[in-house]
Amino acid sequence: MDDSHAIWIEKYRPQKLSEIIGQGQIIERLQSYVRSGNLPHLLFSGNAGIGKTTTAIALARELFGDNWNMNFREMNASDERGIDVVRNQIKQFARTSPFGESSFKILFLDEADALTTDAQAALRRTMESYAVSCRFILSCNYSSKIIDPIQSRCAIFRFKPLVREDINEEIMNIAKKEGLFVEPDAIDALTYISQGDMRKAINALQGAAILGNKINSDRIFSITATALPGEIEDLLNLCMKKDFLGAGLLLRHLLSERGIAPQELLFQCYRSLVLREIPEDLKVRMIDHIGETDFRLSEGANSDIQMEALIARFVITAPQA
Q1: What Å distances lie between residue 207 and 162, 173, 221, 268, CA to CA?
Q2: What are the distances in angstroms from CA 109 to CA 51, 81, 144?
Q3: Which of 194, 207, 316, 317 falls between 20 and 30 A from 47, CA-CA?
Q4: How far is CA 184 from the centre of its chain?
Q5: Which CATH number fits domain 8-158: 1.10.3210.10, 3.40.50.300, 3.40.50.2300, 3.40.470.10?
Q6: 178-192 confidence digits (pLDDT tens)
Q7: In terms of pTM, does the model score above 0.85?
Q8: How far apart are CA 140 and CA 114, in angstroms?
Q9: Phi/psi at 140 (5° precision)
């Protein structure tokens, strides 16, 4: 089958637990379950794009072999988050017998933290009633949104964000197979824009590769509509100098000509401020301004006015020279 037009995040999805990078201790624990041929209910938590779904599928492949998809079902709780999906679809799968010689099946429930509290209570009973024939793997971004009775029934695995070395390893592996030359500064750019999300890094690489096989940081930032870290520093420096006009011109350049989303620009300003060496009380006030602007944007306020207002607050907050 021709995969020349395949989405790279699927084309290069690891098929075995041993191929998954950046989660060493978690993989070792799961491999011990494979060797024993059994496993408890599992709860995977962590940010998006760090391997939770891939790990669940790889675990099922190694447990069930060639017929793994007959005893494995993936569902997304954000599609249908009410109690009916638990009573009908989930319960129906859990109660049927495993295929072949397998002693149990696996139901992988992605974004389980999207389930309502009532649906989670019903899920708890289903997990309890059909534990012999079906194991549940729940995946979520925030384990705190999963009710305690479910958490206590699961072995909890907390996936950590991928670091630069992990992203570099995967990107260089893909680049070798695709015939790309990825410059070192492009790896730094992919690490910066992805924030540990391998899916985002691979998607950015594929987008950049469409324009040519030589990948540098400028192309990565351009293809992802992300401001360069230096541009964010320039914006904050102008605010610190109380140059409202200059900061406003740069802001409009980033939003209008570069097409950077206001929320993305806010997050980049926040990341820069956290690392910036300025007095703590000044840092606290500026981050508070970012939080207020983010809330107003989420409530539907005009983005141009709010971003200009944020710059104005930064200028007012900056100390006198």
Answers
A1: 21, 17, 11, 21
A2: 14, 11, 16
A3: 207
A4: 23
A5: 3.40.50.300
A6: 999 999 899 999 999
A7: no
A8: 8
A9: -155, 160
